[in-house]
């Protein structure tokens, strides 16, 4: 069967995530980790160092091909891993994920033995909703396992997609700080293991799936309907706390596993939303999704695997006096030449606009006026505009596109953030 993942063997080039050399991950993959909190002991939950594990350096670390993905903490613990969002999944598809992983955990230096390890555990998971939080309750996890020094048998898990995208996670957690708490992953596979027709009992059956990774007011909800045969007059009704909500048609078609219809709607208030699909040929099918209000007076600091995200009460970081902050948000792929173009434009030297790569830094702050100039939004791995609008309501998001650094220099010279349109 076909592997649905990009770069499953970590053999394509590695790149510095967000331009950070200490976080070098394979193309197609993203890193994640639980942040160290000020209240933690100094060795607890440190950011790992990510890099390629090359066969030419140590053949034991790459199970096949020239490289594997490695990350590590030294004299520190971590809860961390890598992830990939997979698009184009047929809702209702049963999926099988497998991955080979092992750890080297020790305070000694023998590279083939984990002497007195720090209880470094590995597991893999699938989020059927396609979310980006590895600690969401929707994630389906494999059995957690200690696997030291050799790859051995693969980790495996199965789940059924709720929408047209899923997210896979490869995660490790270690309890004790050792000189070497190193993790290696290789040969990951995500495959479809059953057809939609096998999942549906008859030609008249309909599978209705709702997908909303955020489940927040203002964040779009995807609706995917699948049937074995073509249906006459398909229609979607959405009812929320304030009454009917008009869905937007996003197309339909026939794939190898059935007929699929796509819609999208945006919740306008917190509460339950009931989605009902009707046709001339089948009984009505309904599903309900609970939507919550976005965080407007708090900031997500870090995720905790045992509870909800840690929250910092509004007021921390409150400015001494109000001012208009303008933040030029660079995509992860932008190098030094783009930064130099910003300097040459006068945006920093003349206006003192903030320049950076962090979307959270761009949106955070108890300020009356926040403008985020997003350079080349399509260069982000996830939809950055809707993400900023979801997590940092009230900020004016101003996307601009520049083909080259010289184009950016010209655009910034004529840009007036005070006249920025409100997107969304």
Please name the defining characteristics of this protein.
27 strands, six-stranded antiparallel beta sheet, Rossmann fold, mainly beta, Immunoglobulin-like, 3 domains, 424 residues, 41% strand, Jelly Rolls
Helix content: under 10%
Structural class: mainly beta
Number of domains: 3
- The overall average pLDDT, rounded, is 84
Give the radius of gyration: 23 Å
Strand runs, count = 27
Fold-level CATH name of the largest domain: Jelly Rolls
CATH superfamily of the largest domain: Galactose-binding domain-like
Task: Write down the CATH class of the largest domain.
Answer: Mainly Beta
Shape: globular
Q: Alpha-carbon distance between the termini? A: 41 Å
Would you identify the CATH architecture of the largest domain?
Sandwich
* Poorly predicted residue ranges: 295-316, 420-424
Question: What can you see in these coordinates?
Answer:
There is one protein chain. The protein has about 425 residues and is mainly β. It folds into three domains: about 15-190, Jelly Rolls, CATH 2.60.120.260; about 195-290, Immunoglobulin-like; about 320-420, Rossmann fold (3-Layer(aba) Sandwich), CATH 3.40.50. It is about 10% helix and about 40% strand. It is built from five helices and 27 strands. The protein has helices at about 195-200, 335-345, 360-365, 385-390, 405-415; strands spanning about 15, 25, 30-35, 50-55, 65-75, 80-85, 95-105, 120-125, 140, 145, 155-160, 165-175, 180-190, 205-210, 220-225, 235-240, 245, 250-255, 260-265, 270-280, 285-290, 300, 310-315, 325-330, 355, 370-375, 395-400. The strands form seven sheets. Strands 3, 6, 8, 9, 10 and 12 form a six-stranded antiparallel β-sheet that branches. A five-stranded antiparallel β-sheet has the order 4-5-13-7-11, with no helix packed on it. It has a four-stranded antiparallel β-sheet with strand order 14-15-19-18, with no helix packed on it. Strand 26 (about 370-375), helix 4 (about 385-390) and strand 27 (about 395-400) form a beta-alpha-beta unit. The chain starts with 13 loop residues before the first strand and ends in an 11-residue tail after the last helix.
């Amino acid at each position: 069967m076909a592997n649905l993942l990009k770069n499953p063997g970590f053999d394509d080039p590695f790149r510095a995530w967000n331009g950070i050399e200490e976080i070098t991950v394979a193309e197609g993959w993203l890193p994640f980790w639980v942040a160290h909190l000020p209240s933690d002991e100094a060795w607890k939950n440190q950011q790992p160092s990510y890099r390629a594990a090359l066969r030419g350096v140590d053949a034991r670390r790459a199970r096949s091909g020239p490289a594997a993905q490695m990350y590590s903490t030294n004299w520190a613990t971590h809860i961390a891993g890598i992830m990939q969002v997979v698009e184009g999944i047929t809702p209702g598809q049963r999926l099988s994920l497998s991955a080979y992983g092992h750890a080297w955990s020790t305070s000694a230096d023998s590279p083939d033995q984990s002497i007195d390890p720090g209880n470094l555990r590995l597991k893999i998971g699938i989020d059927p909703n396609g979310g980006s939080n590895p600690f969401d309750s929707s994630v389906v996890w494999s059995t957690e396992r200690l696997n030291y020094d050799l790859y051995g048998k693969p980790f495996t898990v199965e789940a059924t997609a709720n929408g047209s995208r899923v997210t896979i996670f490869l995660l490790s957690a270690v309890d004790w700080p050792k000189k070497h708490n190193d993790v290696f992953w290789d040969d990951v596979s995500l495959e479809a293991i059953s057809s939609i027709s096998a999942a549906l009992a008859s030609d008249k059956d309909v599978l209705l799936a709702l997908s909303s990774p955020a489940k927040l007011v203002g964040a779009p909800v995807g609706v995917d309907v699948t049937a074995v045969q073509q249906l006459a007059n398909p229609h979607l009704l959405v009812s929320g706390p304030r009454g009917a909500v008009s869905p937007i048609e996003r197309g339909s078609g026939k794939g190898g596993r059935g007929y699929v219809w796509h819609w999208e709607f945006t919740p306008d208030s917190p509460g339950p939303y009931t989605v009902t699909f009707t046709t001339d040929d089948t009984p009505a099918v309904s599903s309900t999704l609970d939507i919550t209000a976005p965080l407007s007076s708090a900031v997500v600091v870090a995720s905790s695997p045992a509870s909800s995200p840690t929250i910092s009460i509004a007021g921390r970081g409150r400015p001494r006096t109000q001012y208009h902050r303008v933040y030029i948000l660079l995509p992860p792929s932008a190098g030094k030449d783009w930064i130099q173009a910003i300097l040459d434009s006068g945006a920093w030297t003349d206006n003192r606009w903030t320049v950076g790569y962090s979307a959270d830094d761009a949106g955070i702050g108890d300020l009356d006026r926040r403008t985020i100039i997003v350079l080349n939004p399509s260069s982000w791995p996830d939809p950055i505009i809707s993400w900023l609008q979801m997590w940092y309501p009230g900020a004016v998001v101003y996307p601009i596109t520049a083909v080259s650094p010289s184009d950016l220099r010209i655009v910034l010279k004529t840009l007036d953030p005070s006249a920025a349109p409100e997107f969304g």
